[in-house]
Amino acid sequence: MKAKHKKLLARTGATVLITLILLFVSVPSVVVIMSAFNSTAILSFPPQDLSLRWFERAVTYRDFQRGFINGLIVTAWTSGIALVIGTALAYAIDRFQFRGKDLLETILLSPLVIPHFTIGLGVLMLASQVSMRGSFATVILAQVILVLPFVLRSVYVSLRNLDRRYELAAASLGASPLQVLLRVDLPLLLPGMFGGWLFAAILSFNEFSAALFVTSHATQTLPVAMYTYVREYTDPTMAAISTIFIVTTSITLVLANRFLGLRKVLAIEESK
Amino acid sequence: MTKRQIQFLFVIPAVFVAFLLVASLFSILQFSVREHVPGSLVVGGFTLDNFGRVLRPVYASVLRTTMELALSTALLTLVLSYPLAYALARVPSKAIQSLILIISITPLFTGDIVRTYAWLIVLGNNGFVNSTLMALGIIERPLQLMYTQLGVTLALVQYSIPVMVMVLTTAIAHIDRNYEKAAASLGAGPVRVFLKVTLPLSTPGIIAGVITIFAWTLSAFATPQLIGGGKVMMLSNMVYLVGFSSFDFPFAAVLSLIGLVVSIALLVAMNWSSRRVEKMGLH
Questions:
Q1: A108 touches B at CB < 8 Å
Q2: Is A249 left (phi over 0), alpha (psi -120 to 50) or beta?
Q3: Cis peptide before A46, with omega less than 30 degrees from 0?
């Protein structure tokens, strides 16, 4: 009886603890969503009257609109390029032996530890030497460098889990290496590729630190426009646009979890 | 196409990106040894004076604040993430697992600005924490949470939890559960099994997690920029200030190099410690 009591106590304690930690993580988002519906320009808790005026202002504000379009352009290019380069390299690393393989992998994974502002500053300095400061190409280069490790990891995990016997079967039936690649490997790798692409796209669209260094006014992405807004105004327009971000991101994550299995995509576990 | 041609085709684009990344970092090095010409973006001749400036008290104190924040964030994040990771690895219910996973990793994907803005509303003088405490009559005047190290740390911890949870969950999920079963069958209670078996066996994950978050925090920019408000400054904020307010790119380059060197040192430390842990037979 005593052991049972102890176990119950440990379990209740753990549940309370985990709930409190999850509250700490989610309270800021909840507070933002609450204040987005506040009718007055001055924030107060709880909100006095509800209103949608800040959402209206957020979606009609010129800099946000332009930032959104720029963000879509940058994100589309970045995630596409990173997907192609990352998938090809993950495949090459898994299947081929070539000189400098470890070095290449180390360099391309290094943005996981190198501060974003360092990469931003480096790309800015490189771009200014060839007079490409603030161009879309420069912004996209910085973003590709930052998101490539995520695509690489996601595809690499799928490759490790791929059953090589399918390839052998296809080859023994006369398929050329290219046919094996396109007809057997590619379809099997699609879920991992999609997961990697999705995270590259989300991270690129939301990336701020490096973007602040490399964008100009003409190419600034949404997070940079939002940063400028926070520094100039204090009204809840920011809360409204943040709410749109939070809701969109959460829905995407729930869907990714439902259809792809987040743990696999995040490489938390390698499925057997 | 032969296998060799496929291989060439697959590796070349990645080599190109790697080359541009190395060239970018090399540009920083190049700028760091050039003279700053005040009021101009064009840099002057070769000089090593920029490196000497790092030792001035104002920059030394920024470095100290950066290290303090990185260390306290890493440790606090570890304490808060471990229970989540443990639950993720061990709770049998898939629904509860998904709930914990989605809530704890959402901050990673909403982006720096949204997350930091949220903390501005939580910590501000008219913010959520102060309004709530004043309404409850616990405090009479608002607590100063903005522009303090405490405020910056809280926001950085929330930003770091997703990454720490991912690292720790992987480590805990890899522990052979037979050790825990053996300890339990020998009469150890759940708390004791955790403290004497699970916790020590997850050491590699703990070390990797703390080092990763330390590096992760060094990379933080938006959070100290907005919540620190110029009063709590990290290396990244100083780089931005020096680079974009006084356009002193050579010195901004020197400061970034410090960030780069510390990150590389951390990476080396991580490799070294994981090899050591392997040798000790813990994993």
A1: yes
A2: alpha
A3: yes
Instruction: Write the ipTM.
Output: 0.89
pLDDT over 70 (residue A61): yes
pLDDT at B70: 96
Residue A1 has pLDDT above 70, yes or no: no
How many other C-beta atoms can be found within 10 angstroms of the C-beta atom of residue A155? 25
Residue B6 pLDDT > 90? no
Which stretch of A20-29, A211-220, B1-10, B218-227 has the lowest confidence by average pLDDT?
B1-10
Q: Choosing among A18, A37, A117, which should be mutated to test the B contact, i.e. which has the most B CBs within 10 A? A: A117
Phi-psi category of A100—alpha, beta or left, where left has phi over 0 and alpha has psi -120 to 50? left
Quick check: A268 and B166 in contact, CB under 8 A?
yes
Residue A162 sits at the chain B interface (C-beta within 8 Å): no
Taking only the tens place, the pLDDT of each residue in B113-130 is: 999 999 999 999 888 899
* Contact between chains at A178 and B18 (C-beta distance less than 8 A): no
Q: Residue B256: which of A117, A202, A245 has the nearest Cβ?
A: A117
In the three-class reduction of DSSP (H, G, I as helix; E, B as strand; rest coil), residue B234 is classed as coil
Measured between CA atoms, the residue of chain A closest to residue B187 is A3
A131: left (phi over 0), alpha (psi -120 to 50) or beta: left
CA distance B216 to B161: 11
For the cut 50, the answer to whether the pLDDT of residue A234 exceeds it is: yes
CA pair distance B105, B91, nearest whole angstrom: 17
Rounded to the nearest integer, the mean pLDDT of chain B is: 90
Kindly determine whether residue B10 and residue A88, on different chains, have CB atoms separated by under 8 Å. Answer: yes
> Is residue B172 within 8 Å of residue B205, measured between CB atoms?
yes
| Mutation to test the B interface, candidates A2, A109, A113, most B Cβ within 10 Å | A113
Q: What is the pLDDT of residue B278?
A: 65
- Residues B93-131, buried b or exposed e (16+ Cβ, 10 A)? eeeebbebbebbbbbbbbbbbbbbbbbbbbbbeebbbbb
pLDDT at residue A250 tops 80: yes
Closest A-chain CA to B28: A122
Residue positions counted in chain B = 283
Q: Is the pLDDT of residue B157 over 60?
A: yes
Say what the pTM is: 0.89
In angstroms, the separation between the Cα of residue B181 and the nearest Cα of chain A is: 15
Angstrom distance (rounded) from CA A83 to CA A64:
27
| Phi, psi (rounded to 5 degrees) for A92 | -60, -40
**Once rounded to an integer, what is the mean pLDDT over residues A241-267?**
83
Rounded Cα gap, residues B163 and B155, in angstroms: 14
- Within 37-76 of B, beta carbons closer than 8 Å to A belong to 41
CATH fold for domain B64-279: MetI-like fold (1.10.3720)
Cβ contact A118:B259 at 8 Å: yes
B125 touches chain A (CB under 8 A): no
pLDDT greater than 90 at residue B146 = yes
